[in-house]
Specification:
Length: about 400
Amino acid sequence: MPSPLDGRHLWFAGIGGAGMSGYASLARAWGAEVRGWDRVRTPYLDHLEGVEVEISPEPPRAPDGWEPIISTAFAGLVEGKSRAEFLEELVGLRDAVVVAGAHGKTTTTAMIAFCLERLGRDPAYLVGGEVAQLGGNAAAGEGWLVVEGDESDRTIERLRPQIAVLTNIDLDHHSTFASRAEVEALFEGWLEHVPHVVRGEELLPYEGELGVPGLHNRRNAACALAALELVGVDRTEAERALADFSGVGRRLERKGEAGGVEVVDDYAHNPAKIAAALEALHDDRRLVVLFQPHLFSRTRHLARELATALAAADVVAVTDVYPAREQPVEGVTGKLVVDALAEVRPGMQLAWTPTVEQGAAFLAATARQGDRLVTIGAGDVDRAAALVLEALA
């Protein structure tokens, strides 16, 4: 039986990202020849063994005869099909569940895929983070396709699954949306085209056995279980499988312990995610945090809200902004968050540490036995965990 992408030659610009590497992996499994380019080598490329990947500062032209698929980060630099258009194509090839929302979509997507895999349903899936229990972030099974959708570039409105999960709504992408009402309109317009919808904000948090901490994960679990029931999975079986789920990489991920200090890494990058992560980690230990702001637009608009969320910690250091796809904005640095924190919680121990290395050094010098040290952000702040552990050893 022919695979759905047999005979296609696909070249991915930005292939090292969590999303694009997953698309490339699935396309290859479904019969396409795959090559790609990125500016840096990432761990996600480890799952594309045997795929030719060029690493260079600037994108080359796609090889003759190959279809270019372009990551949002490089839109305008390379001509070709957008990631939104390609994901629309993939979702159209299979019965699909698409998970969207401002918070929790990666974990919820992983929960659904994990349960289907554990219960022998052989899912295909595209998750925006590493799932150790699944051996990666993408697979090409013969069952339902489970996909993490994205509103940051309006990708979500193109997708036409059989089941949609909307975890929640928030204004998180200020360079794309002018207001929360605009985000709501995007989601409502999308959901009009989907036969079966799960709305997380209408569900009570799951109260059963769960292997990941935090109220936010109980809300994610409620969404996952509702979607699994729509797929046709028995609720009791789904709950039994979900109890074994241990999480997604960079979501409250324990990185190790040294000098009596536990080090945890988390991907949180907006106020709600930061508040949820710190709530889940809060106990009788001091919370010592290194935060890396993500995107100039988000930092400019939400500096005080970010500070309010970080005020739940005991000690906070803040690096400069991780730009991702954005160009610098004059006057917008991580110090905006530091200054706001000084106002929100006067007397708190704070530090402005522009580089990840400076932040790691400050935290290692500040942490004491019994502390829990947390690195937070969606950029390269995850490098700090190893630096801190080495310094504390």
